[in-house]
């Protein structure tokens, strides 16, 4: 009997495809904001609209039902998740690309904290050490932003990471309730469209020149393909390998920011990113797994 991973030639490397997709999305977000003046509300609207339309059509074609008895949990996850996206888009738009993207990955740190305080889950000493290590990385990463007058963007990114951690708790709950992944993403997208429409109306819509359409299209398409690839990776790949490969988005974003956007990253920010990425990877690997790896390689 073969495992799902052996049936798919890409396996865990689907996460590399996802990382590339998320990087393209973030580069287009930053470029669209700089060239056409789009605000975070507008960019979230176009990003969510693409997913809502495509997922809705696909679900309808498959004959899936949109009805759910867990609409309150969906609403909680979707509202908090959309608010997180507003913050993270704002951070990506106003900070060096790698810095803004890395702040989104603090969600794993906050997820562990919320699991302890909200779900009363016991946190092992190993995890506690990693959390302290991760928060040290956050301090190092944010310090240059505060000194450079980018406090609001830095705090927005950190708030986005915290809210993403909370939203992941709701996703976990919905999964345990038996809700399919497409429905979670669909209601998240619909809620995002509504919230982004309201926010963009309050802050002002911009006219869309033809030259802006490729950027908006790429944001929606890259985000959807990245999401599907990530879902596929977790389904057919090794979860520890996939979790580690997900941090390639930070690496790709750092390189893309320097090559295409002219971003500069200080040594302190680089060190902070390395610490956050390392803590994220270590948090996905249990001490038992590390011990087994050393045993096999010795």
Rg computed from alpha carbons, rounded to a whole number of angstroms = 19 Å
Strand content: under 5%
Runs in which pLDDT lies below 50 for 5 or more consecutive residues are: 1-6
> In which range does the helix fraction lie?
over 70%
User: How many strand units?
Assistant: 0
C-alpha termini separation: 30 Å
The computed structural class is: mainly alpha
Order of helices and strands: HHHHHHHHHHHHHH
Compute the number of helices.
Answer: 14
Keywords:
298 residues, mainly alpha, disordered N terminus
Structure description:
It is a single chain. It is globular, with a radius of gyration of 19 Å. With 298 residues, it is mostly helical. The chain has helices at residues 4-7, 14-36, 40-62, 71-94, 97-104, 107-117, 125-147, 151-176, 181-203, 213-236, 239-245, 248-260, 267-283, 287-297. The chain is built from 14 helices and no strands.
Task: Describe this structure in a few short sentences.
By secondary structure, this protein is an all-alpha fold. The protein is built from 14 helices and no strands.
Topology:
Layout: H1 4-7, H2 14-36, H3 40-62, H4 71-94, H5 97-104, H6 107-117, H7 125-147, H8 151-176, H9 181-203, H10 213-236, H11 239-245, H12 248-260, H13 267-283, H14 287-297
Helix pairs in contact: 2-4, 2-10, 2-12, 3-4, 3-9, 3-10, 4-5, 4-8, 4-9, 5-8, 5-12, 6-8, 7-8, 7-13
């Amino acid at each position: 009997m073969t495992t799902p991973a052996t049936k798919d030639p890409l396996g865990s490397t689907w996460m590399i495809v996802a990382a590339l997709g998320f990087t393209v999305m973030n580069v287009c977000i930053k470029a669209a904001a700089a060239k056409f003046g789009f605000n975070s509300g507008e960019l979230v609207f176009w990003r969510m609209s693409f997913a809502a339309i495509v997922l809705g059509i696909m679900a309808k074609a498959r004959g899936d039902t949109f009805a759910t008895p867990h609409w309150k949990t969906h609403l909680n996850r979707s509202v908090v998740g959309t608010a997180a996206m507003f913050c993270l888009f704002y951070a990506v738009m106003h900070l060096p690309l790698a810095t803004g993207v890395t702040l989104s990955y603090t969600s794993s740190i906050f997820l562990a904290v919320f699991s302890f305080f909200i779900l009363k889950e016991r946190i092992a000493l190993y995890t506690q050490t990693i959390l302290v290590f991760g928060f040290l990385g956050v301090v190092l990463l944010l310090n240059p932003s505060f000194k450079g007058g980018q406090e609001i963007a830095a705090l927005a990114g950190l708030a986005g990471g915290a809210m993403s951690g909370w939203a992941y708790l709701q996703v976990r709950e919905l999964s345990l309730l038996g809700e399919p992944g497409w429905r979670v993403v669909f209601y998240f997208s619909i809620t995002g469209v509504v919230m982004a429409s309201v926010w963009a109306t309050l802050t002002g819509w911009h006219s869309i020149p033809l030259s802006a359409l490729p950027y908006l299209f790429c944001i929606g398409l890259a985000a959807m393909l990245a999401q599907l690839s990530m879902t596929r990776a977790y389904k057919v790949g090794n979860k520890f390998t996939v979790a580690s490969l997900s941090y390639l988005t930070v690496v790709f974003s750092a390189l893309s920011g320097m090559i295409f956007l002219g971003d500069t990253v200080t040594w302190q920010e680089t060190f902070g990113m390395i610490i956050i990425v390392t803590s994220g990877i270590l948090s996905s690997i249990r001490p038992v797994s590390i011990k087994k790896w050393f045993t096999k390689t010795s």
